[in-house]
Amino acid sequence: MSFETLKLHPLILKAIVDSGYSTPTPIQKQAIPELLAGHDIMASAQTGTGKTAAFMLPALHRLATASKVHSRGPRILVLTPTRELALQVSDAATKYGKYLHRIKVVSILGGMPYPLQNKLLSQPVDILVATPGRLIDHIQRGRINFSRLEMLVLDEADRMLDMGFIEDVEKIALAIPTTHQTLMFSATLDSAIAKVATRLLKSPKRIQIAKQQAKLDNIEQRLHYVDDLSHKNRLLDHLLRDIKLKQAIVFTATKRDADTLADNLSAQGHEALALHGDMNQRDRTRTITKLRHGSLRVLVATDVAARGINVVGITHVINFDLPKFAEDYVHRIGRTGRAGASGIAVSFASGKDGVNLQKIERFTGHRIVSHVVPGLEPRYKPRSRPGNTPRATPSIVRKRSRSWSNDSNKRSSFSNVNGNWNNNRDHSFSNDKMGNSFKNVRNK
Ligand code: AMP
């Protein structure tokens, strides 16, 4: 099937050609005809499947015809759980709508100044992409006229539910006219999501896309057993010095750990920055732009912050801490292997992570093969993983890092850091201990 057979507006097809897409992805093949026919849909599809275009192309197709209602309010409203995802959706709208006549896309996100948003909302808007909390503020102040709204998209609805935004989403749905088409995209379609769908969608068509296993096929998943924080840090440093690693996202359990680890990696000579929800929007946008432009090699992030990141250059995802929820594992590793590329996802696991690891493997239906780096072998030997003899990671090609070869200051600061952790004989992995070890290094 080609994009032409989907009967999208010719100016949208022209933008698709510019994007280099030759065939629609499975979610696009299934969703676009239903949406053009005017149906509500409830689709289980993850990021990386092409779901943004699956809703944005039919949305733009609507915009190619003038609205019959005379108003300046949005014709399309997209709600996303995170600011990053919202910006990504806005970028997609601009990219696919670039040949249509003056499509105005506005993002209304938390953490951004109100006066600018008030100004944007006082002008005509075609596509409004928003995070729920901030949008409610503007609705309550009467700043948005929804009289010509034609389509409501709930992107990553499961995540909005997890993050406690679903009440806000339902409030928004109540505040807008009921004549619009509603689309719900979610990585999982469990009973909680089904309940929300029953309240918000009208006889939706259900679309279920590729199981997780299929989607992760282009990502090599590796496991490294770790003994303690010092071991984790030495392994991480080793992996980051591989020249085949072009860009990486390293995931930590907490915002504080993301900051601390990014600081420590910088001290070791890696180009690293943190990304998490406590940062202001300007800093977050600046960091993501650097990543997108390839001028940032290592991003240290928390789950929520990294959720919408779609950067083709990410070759590696490293789970410095395993995620709490198996579903987050899939989201995390999906940051690599974008747009048909292959990727490597490395997870560090200690003896205490056994149950978590099992949950992840059950969820993905894939046993993660354990690897060892010669010279950095763990003392810990798991007993309950039959047939899983650790593989030696092929000897890593080291990046010639300026900090190692030329800059003696940085080199010595790294040795200090390492020495300090090596001397830390407490191998407990409790957050507290970890925080303390981090603090020691930070205070150096
Ligand atoms: P998404 O699932 O919306 O996050 O999209 C994942 C990636 O797939 C993005 O980089 C898109 O640019 C890309 N993409 C979307 N549709 C297609 C397509 N039909 N062919 C190739 N790449 C696509």
Unreliably modeled segments? 398-444
The number of helical segments is 19
Helix content class: 40-55%
Please write the CATH class name of the largest domain.
Alpha Beta
Number of domains: 2
So, CATH architecture of the largest domain? 3-Layer(aba) Sandwich
Q: Indicate the radius of gyration in whole angstroms.
A: 23 Å
Q: Separation of termini?
A: 60 Å
| Largest beta sheet: strand ordering | 10-11-9-12-13-8-14-15
Give the names of the bound compounds: adenosine monophosphate
Helix and strand composition category:
alpha/beta
Provide the CATH topology of the largest domain. Answer: Rossmann fold
Large-scale geometry: globular
- DSSP, total strands: 15
Largest sheet: 8 strands, parallel
Under CATH, the homologous superfamily of the largest domain reads P-loop containing nucleotide triphosphate hydrolases
Mean pLDDT: 83
Notable traits:
single chain, alpha/beta, Rossmann fold, eight-stranded parallel β-sheet, seven-stranded parallel β-sheet, 19 helices, 15 strands, binds adenosine monophosphate
